[in-house]
Amino acid sequence: MSEFKLTKKHRALKNAASKDTSRPTLHCIHITKGKVQAADGFIAMERGLDYDGDEDFLLNVDDITGHQDAKMMGGVTYVKQDDGSMRVIGKGINIIKPVEGNYPNIDNLYPTTEPVFKIGISRTLLQQMLNCLDKDETAIKFIFYGENSPVKIIAGPFDSKNTVPQLLPNDGDSVQGLIMPMKVQW
Prior knowledge:
CATH architecture of the largest domain: Roll
Oligomer: single chain
CATH superfamily of the largest domain: DNA Polymerase III, subunit A, domain 2
Number of strands: 11
CATH class of the largest domain: Alpha Beta
Number of helices: 3
Radius of gyration: 20 Å
Distance between the termini: 38 Å
């Protein structure tokens, strides 16, 4: 029997999954040996998971959105049933059906060469900066000058005529800023 537990942190990866339901395998989180993954074709996220089973599972993000941790269990437990469905045990108990299909191997997307440099950025400060942007400032450029220099950020509207996101020419309304690097133990 295959069983694993997803905490609130694991289930938060649903935010990296595709919102587009026409790509059903990407509208899921992927459970595989030792990790949970989510991707939408532009971003990919994964988190370690205490699961050493041989089976992979695709769970539709719509199915897991309402699941809440059971305090005594420290998460939500998913147990594969004989009919292939998953029994979900959290604040409540329900049954969901895993999605069928093949999940892309995102392990192959991670660069294997040495990085040019590494820089630490505070999540809180990055979020604070993103909160300064208007809803139409959807293209953001990060410019790195070195591991001890600030990261420059330029944001502006998205040029939807191009297939590759590009900032529109400076119309006097684009925004820019800096985030200072942090010392991080790698």
